[in-house]
Design goal:
Growth Hormone, Chain: A, single chain, 0% strand, disordered N terminus
Length: 434
């Protein structure tokens, strides 16, 4: 079994490396981008893999339900609060920690993450676990999350959508590596001991990965930024929140991530209870889902660059509706429908986590990006709270996962309607507000 875990680590690394090499071919060497920047892309991916272990919650969910004798609504609390804490602490990190070095901020976040995992091993009830796994661990993820994005965006300002999506692959494919490891730890040592082992691991790994991370020198960054930035598009946070483009971006980011977080959190339960797969088979399928979650980020980042964030959002909504309709036709043994639908669901959550930062950079510029995206990202936390809680209640009330898929379709329709009011660009709007 140890060899199996090592195999997952090796193949996970090879998948990420292959994605990086494929995407790297999209860059023209004549653009004079320093190869040094690619070091931070690799480090960023590795850090994101560590942070993205939060998406493996569904592996722990059934054992937690059995341990504490609780239902779906309560077992979603740690996951819901971790995502909410992650988003709100990202706002605080963007506002107060931007003056520190990337190394300091990521290390601080990593230590808090490790503490959250370790303390979770002593949780005696779901509410204690909600504090340790939810609030403490989630806040650490929020502190560290935005830093690798900010670093690589400054090293590659002319390909921000693609390169940010590329680094975010790490967060998306994290379950490809961490879910089978987590499953092995739960089976071998029990869920509480698994929390403890993960805490110790991240206490060492995340600070180590953060050590080389630096922003580009001011002279090099300024030279790259000079011809790529529109001074009229450098929008302060206080001005940004007054714009129609912000309100529309915020609402749709909330709805899009709400859907993804609902379904990622229920992936294991739906596979076991609706499709009647074994937990081991569901974990293996989660490797496939994680790959789709990862590749969704550079693909939607590229779509946002090439088309527009509005068109990318519409594509995502229509894909999600298609997947939800497939699941409404699924029943016991519908492994193919389950595999296709959840690949699409995970793919689109990855997509939204590339659309939002790319749109924030395009609309409001580099200068205030950390603070601006910190505000935008609070929509993720609100989506997590509303979506995870509401979906748990819907499942418990109707005693059916089909009701959850109807809820997902309704959210998509609301998003599509709201997009008709989204402005194409904020520049004219910003001029009017001057």
């Amino acid at each position: 079994m140890v060899l199996t875990v090592l195999d997952f680590l090796f193949y996970g690394f090879m998948v990420v490396k292959g994605m990086v090499m494929i995407m790297k071919k999209n860059f023209n060497p004549e653009q004079n981008i320093s190869s040094t920047g690619w070091l931070y892309v690799f480090l960023g991916i590795a850090i994101m893999i560590s942070l993205g272990t939060v998406y493996s919650w569904s592996v722990f969910r059934l054992p937690i339900e059995q341990l504490y004798s609780i239902g779906t609504t309560q077992s979603g609390l740690p996951y819901m609060i971790s995502l909410a804490s992650y988003s709100f602490f990202m706002l605080l990190s963007g506002k107060y920690l931007t003056k520190n070095s990337p190394r300091f901020t990521i290390t601080l976040g990593g230590i808090i993450i490790a503490l959250g995992w370790f303390l979770s091993s002593y949780a005696t009830n779901i509410y204690y676990l909600t504090i340790t796994y939810g609030f403490i661990m989630g806040s650490g993820v929020g502190i560290a999350y935005g830093v690798p994005i900010s670093v690589v965006a400054k090293w590659f300002p002319n390909k921000k959508g693609l390169i940010v999506g590329l680094v975010l692959i790490g967060f998306g494919v994290s379950p490809f590596i961490t879910a089978p490891i987590a499953r092995y730890l739960v089976v071998s040592f029990g869920v509480m001991k698994a929390f403890q082992i993960l805490g110790i691991t991240f206490a060492v790994l995340i600070p180590l990965l953060s050590y080389p991370m630096v922003y580009p020198p001011d002279t090099e960054y300024s030279k790259k930024h000079e011809n790529l930035s529109d001074p009229m598009n450098e929008v302060k946070t206080v001005s940004m929140i007054k714009l129609k483009s912000f309100k529309s971006l915020y609402l749709n980011f909330m709805l899009g991530t709400m859907i993804g977080l609902i379904l990622i959190g229920m992936t294991n339960n739906i596979g076991v209870e609706l499709i009647r797969l074994s937990e081991d088979k569901v974990v293996l399928l989660m490797l496939l889902f994680a790959v789709f979650n990862g590749i969704g980020r550079p693909i939607f980042g590229w779509l946002t660059d090439k088309l527009s964030y509005k068109k990318a959002m519409l594509i995502s909504y229509y894909l999600i509706i298609t997947a939800a309709l497939l699941m409404l036709m699924a029943n016991v043994g519908s492994v193919v429908l389950y595999s296709i639908a959840f690949s699409i669901f995970w793919f689109n959550l990855g997509g939204w986590l590339a659309i939002a930062p790319t749109a924030t950079l395009a609309l409001y510029g580099f200068k205030y990006y950390s603070q601006n995206y910190g505000v935008v990202f609070t929509a993720y936390g609100i989506g997590a709270i509303i979506g995870v809680y509401a979906s748990g209640v819907v499942k418990d009330v109707f005693q059916s996962y089909y009701a959850v898929f109807y809820l997902v379709i309704a959210i998509c329709v609301l998003g599509i309607i709201s997009l008709t009011q989204m402005p194409k660009c904020n520049k004219v709007e910003y001029d009017d507000n001057k």
